[in-house]
Amino acid sequence: MKTRILLSSLSLALFVSIFYTSCKKSLEPKPSDYTASTENANADNAFAGIWGQVSKVANDTTNHIRGLETSYPIVTISPIGLNVYPKNVTIDYGPTDLLCSDGVKRRGKIKANFSGRFNDSLTVITVTDSAFYHNDNLVQGTETITNKGHISSGHLVYTVVVNNATVTNTNGGITTWSTNQTRTWTQGESTPYWVLDDVWMVDGTANGTTSTGNNYAITINTSLQVNIGCPWIVAGKFTLIMANYPTYPITLDYGTGTCDANATVVFDNTTYTIVMY
């Protein structure tokens, strides 16, 4: 009798366990889309573009930023002089959209304060935006760039910190974005006045809140490649985890180096193609 009762109890416990587990799996929430990965990519592209624009005037007292542009942008540098620091730089794209040489439409202003020359170890560059638009999306925030010197392979390394920046899209949706990155200057350092050959490799983490209020965090799995002459990140991968859906990672792949707006997202075992702004 005791044996029979014990077996019945075990059977019941097993049944309850299986029932609970199956119900839990069937009711486990999952995100309805991969918007978070797209919004993170767009924020990253916008701030990478700001980096590129600032680097164009970093070590000069004349205007080397113009490409397809005509009267704008207007670059103001104070004080004038290659070796006079700290230095304030304002890049004014004007009140209407300006098609820049990297294919991005910009308007508004970027402001940067340099504690020293861009290439000098320990230089700190603080970048802020004033009614600045990247492809009609309002970008607001502060980007702090610190030169950490040359690593063993001979490349300059910079850290980049952005805290609680916002990107407001054309529909009024607001994304908040923070990042802590390491950027390695792998190509173009030897040609300081021709920045379109510059290539940067980006590693680190980011987090933010989507325009629909979902929190997320990302880790860069394969270094992101930023070509200054291209308006989009061209290669690399990151994995994004949404706070409400920790068992549904989203992976974004920028590609293998082609300068285009396309990227792929793997979400819930399905691959999607997205187009970045």
The oligomeric state of the chains shown is single chain
Helix and strand sequence: HHEEEEEEEEEEEEEEE
- Rounded radius of gyration (Å): 24 Å
Give the low-confidence spans. Answer: 1-27, 61-69
Strand content: over 45%
Structure description:
The chain has one domain (33-275). Residues 1-27 and 61-69 have low confidence and may be disordered. It has a 15-stranded antiparallel beta sheet that branches. It has helices spanning 2-27, 35-56; strands at residues 74-78, 87-92, 98-99, 105-114, 124-134, 137-140, 142-150, 156-168, 174-187, 199-209, 215-227, 235-242, 245-256, 262-267, 270-275. With 277 residues, it is of the alpha+beta class. The N and C termini lie far apart (72 Å).
Please provide a brief summary of the model.
This protein is α+β, with helices and mostly antiparallel strands and 277 residues long. The chain has helices spanning 2-27, 35-56, and strands at 74-78, 87-92, 98-99, 105-114, 124-134, 137-140, 142-150, 156-168, 174-187, 199-209, 215-227, 235-242, 245-256, 262-267, 270-275.
Tell me the layout of helices and strands.
Blueprint: H1 2-27, H2 35-56, E1 74-78, E2 87-92, E3 98-99, E4 105-114, E5 124-134, E6 137-140, E7 142-150, E8 156-168, E9 174-187, E10 199-209, E11 215-227, E12 235-242, E13 245-256, E14 262-267, E15 270-275
